[in-house]
């Protein structure tokens, strides 16, 4: 027996599209349902959190998640990915190299997770279990989920990181998952892997994808509109000294 978005504490955004705000880092995870497949957008900050997302999707649909889209390679968005062992995994070009076994990318993610407050053991377990990103998106890629539902995966970075992927779900309204290119609950965070000079242009690409009427889903915080994204683009340009 399936349940509603609201019964699970999720926010319904459009027909077959919802998201939740995970505890701790207030990170967004999204779910897009088609007739034949289900796409999870980001997977939380640990294997346990990923397992809870997997169970929520099962309760909503009675089916398993078939596809994952990882908006960018930060631990709070990707450390739950191994909880979906049979899913097809998508990320922006360059993501898979960061997840390579024994590589510095895994160690950097583990160290960042611990520095941000994740216990050492789950951080290590999640880093060691990171999945291969078999489908790297360069430019744009349409993904069919059945029943006429198609989503657009777009490599819109660099900006927040060198590998920023947006997920556009056409509908009424259009829904655009932005990852941490957009943040509502605080000032956008620019770590050592950010590319500040390119970040405002990445937001311009988001605005072209979503247009004036889309719902823009940030990586952290409440859903926003195009005006908010424009204001954040201008603020970032001023913050980083990027001429427009």
From TrEMBL:
CDD domains assigned to the protein according to its UniProt record, in alphabetical order? metallo-hydrolase-like_MBL-fold (cd16282)
Database matches in InterPro entries:
Metallo-B-lactamas (IPR001279), NDM-1-like (IPR050855), RibonucZ/Hydroxyglut_hydro (IPR036866)
Instruction: Provide the transmembrane region boundaries.
Output: none
Q: Where is the Metallo-beta-lactamase domain?
A: 26-220
UniProt cross-references to SUPFAM superfamilies, sorted A to Z: Metallo-hydrolase/oxidoreductase
Report any Pfam family annotated for this entry. Lactamase_B
Gene3D superfamilies membership: Ribonuclease Z/Hydroxyacylglutathione hydrolase-like (3.60.15.10)
Coiled-coil stretches noted in the UniProt entry, renumbered to this chain? none
Q: What is this protein called?
A: MBL fold metallo-hydrolase
């Amino acid at each position: 027996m399936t349940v509603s978005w609201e019964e699970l504490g999720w926010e319904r955004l459009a027909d077959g599209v919802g998201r939740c705000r995970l505890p701790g880092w207030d990170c967004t995870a999204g779910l897009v349902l088609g007739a034949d497949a289900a796409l999870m957008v980001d997977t939380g900050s640990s294997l346990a959190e990923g397992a809870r997302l997997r169970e929520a999707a099962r309760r909503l649909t009675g089916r398993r998640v078939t596809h994952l889209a990882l908006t960018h390679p930060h631990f709070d968005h990707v450390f739950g990915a191994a909880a979906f062992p049979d899913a097809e995994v998508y990320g922006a070009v360059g993501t898979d190299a960061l997840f390579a076994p024994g590589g510095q990318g895994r160690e950097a993610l583990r160290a960042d997770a611990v520095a941000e407050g994740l216990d050492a053991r789950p951080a290590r377990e999640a880093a060691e279990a990171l999945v291969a990103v078999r489908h790297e998106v360069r430019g744009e890629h349409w993904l069919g989920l059945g029943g006429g539902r198609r989503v657009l995966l777009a490599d819109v970075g660099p900006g927040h990181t060198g590998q920023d992927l947006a997920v556009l779900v056409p509908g009424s309204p259009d829904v655009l998952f932005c990852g941490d290119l957009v943040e509502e609950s605080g000032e956008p965070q620019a770590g050592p892997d950010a590319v500040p000079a390119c970040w405002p242009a990445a937001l311009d690409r988001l605005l072209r994808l979503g247009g004036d009427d889309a719902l823009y889903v940030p990586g952290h915080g409440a859903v926003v509109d195009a005006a908010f994204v424009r204001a954040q683009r201008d603020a970032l340009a001023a913050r980083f000294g990027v001429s427009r």
